[in-house]
Amino acid sequence: MQTFKTKGIVLNTIKYGETSIISHIYTELFGIQHYIVKGIRSSSKRKTSQISYFQPASILDLEVYHNELKELQFLKEFSWNTMFRSIHFDVKRNAIALYCAELLNNLVSEPEADIDFFEELIDLFVYLDQEEKDSKIANMPIHFTIKILEHIGIKFNGVYENENLFVLDFVEGGFTDTIPHHSHFLAYEKAAYITELSDNFHWNNVAINSNTRREILDHLQKFIEIHVSNFKKLKSYIILQTIFS
């Protein structure tokens, strides 16, 4: 059977049988794929050490078998594409990486390639790993959430305007000039942050206090629950809230 070489971002890994795993990986060539890795949980030291490759957010070079008619694929070879120096060891960065990987795993389910989006994700994870200042990565969960929603076709209607569109209504999914009768909205400066944090080049320079950042992210979680059917609440979001509280 023909094999293909592709890069991949590990999103989630579960045990399979006595010694194997199934790893959910977002690949450059095939989009979301589920790979069986046989024998990696066996008792040999070499195999056991390879489990670290399949931590969430790991970026790997893969050689894979691919059959479009099957839901489960097989890995032939795997190796590091990018060796992280902080994501798997720093508590805050690991919490952000886990959140981003779980969100991606929940929202992007189709096995369709999007090379531009894939490279954008790679850049974000590498930035998270290499940026030395915590203040420069604090907005990443919000920016990442907005980018994934845009990728699956969910985008806020309009942009913030001081006098006309100064309220972001998460139920209606857009900016408006009217305060709604429910609690799922942001207004004025807080609404403006959404537009600023959507920007691919300046999101990391937007100064927001931690309370406002949590409020925005809470509203985004509610927005997803309202507009994405069968969305599962993220376990990693609870961890993220705890660490950044």
TrEMBL record:
<dbReference type="GO" id="GO:0043590">
    <property type="term" value="C:bacterial nucleoid"/>
</dbReference>
<dbReference type="GO" id="GO:0006310">
    <property type="term" value="P:DNA recombination"/>
</dbReference>
<dbReference type="GO" id="GO:0006302">
    <property type="term" value="P:double-strand break repair"/>
</dbReference>
<keyword id="KW-0234">DNA repair</keyword>
<feature type="domain" description="DNA replication/recombination mediator RecO N-terminal">
    <location>
        <begin position="1"/>
        <end position="79"/>
    </location>
</feature>
<comment type="function">
    <text>Involved in DNA repair and RecF pathway recombination.</text>
</comment>
<keyword id="KW-0233">DNA recombination</keyword>
<dbReference type="InterPro" id="IPR037278">
    <property type="entry name" value="ARFGAP/RecO"/>
</dbReference>
<dbReference type="Pfam" id="PF02565">
    <property type="entry name" value="RecO_C"/>
</dbReference>
<keyword id="KW-0227">DNA damage</keyword>
<dbReference type="InterPro" id="IPR042242">
    <property type="entry name" value="RecO_C"/>
</dbReference>
<comment type="similarity">
    <text>Belongs to the RecO family.</text>
</comment>
<protein>
    <recommendedName>
        <fullName>DNA repair protein RecO</fullName>
    </recommendedName>
</protein>
<dbReference type="InterPro" id="IPR003717">
    <property type="entry name" value="RecO"/>
</dbReference>
<dbReference type="Pfam" id="PF11967">
    <property type="entry name" value="RecO_N"/>
</dbReference>
<dbReference type="InterPro" id="IPR012340">
    <property type="entry name" value="NA-bd_OB-fold"/>
</dbReference>
<dbReference type="InterPro" id="IPR022572">
    <property type="entry name" value="DNA_rep/recomb_RecO_N"/>
</dbReference>
